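pls read this protein.

:::
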Amino acid sequence: MGSGSPLVTIDGPAGAGKSEAARALARRLLVRYVDSGSIYRAITLEALDRGFDLDDTQALQELAAELKIEVETDPAKPPLVKVNGTPVTTRLRSPRVDETVSLVAKVPGVRQAVTRLLWDLSQGAVVEGRDMGSVVFPGVRKKVFLDANFETRVERRSRQAGDWGSDSTEHIEEDLRTRDEIDQLRESAPLRIPQGALVIDSTRLSVGEVVDRIVLYLNSK
């Protein structure tokens, strides 16, 4: 593993509120924030830009290994992702990336490349994703699994789509169902609750309330 382990991992399905809670928690604790999903999105965007066949797992694996991906880990600064020195942040939430990121992320070789990068980035950080506590950092003492009912997740993703200027709002429900199926059934690192994790249903909770619960958990023995 890299130079160290995260302070806490936050896993959960799309739309559960992971990114908002993880960033807010990192700001409160004055530690770094790492969004693993942005790395998978960056690889997906590059594959689409190059016209890759997304069924060609070998090509995707080689692409993930060769790319230089940089991410801003200061939670007080705006999100920033660079691929080979080029900022791509504003393109990561496009409909075509939304529709294909789970296909790229399920490739074992891609996940291995992302895992290596996460090991280098995540010492003492709040790290969020789909398999951070279950696969990437299974030895971390403090793990959270954030969930919400399907209707709430659709509503949140719809709001985010508006914020991102995406035209995919009408496809949110279908996209979430597809991503859930891919995430839960993929052979490599399927979505699951990490052993020993604190499970939080955020359906009726604000971001601040979620963060409060996680802070209490972190302060417990």
About this structure: Residues 8-219 form a domain with the Rossmann fold fold (CATH 3.40.50.300). The chain has nine helices and eight strands.
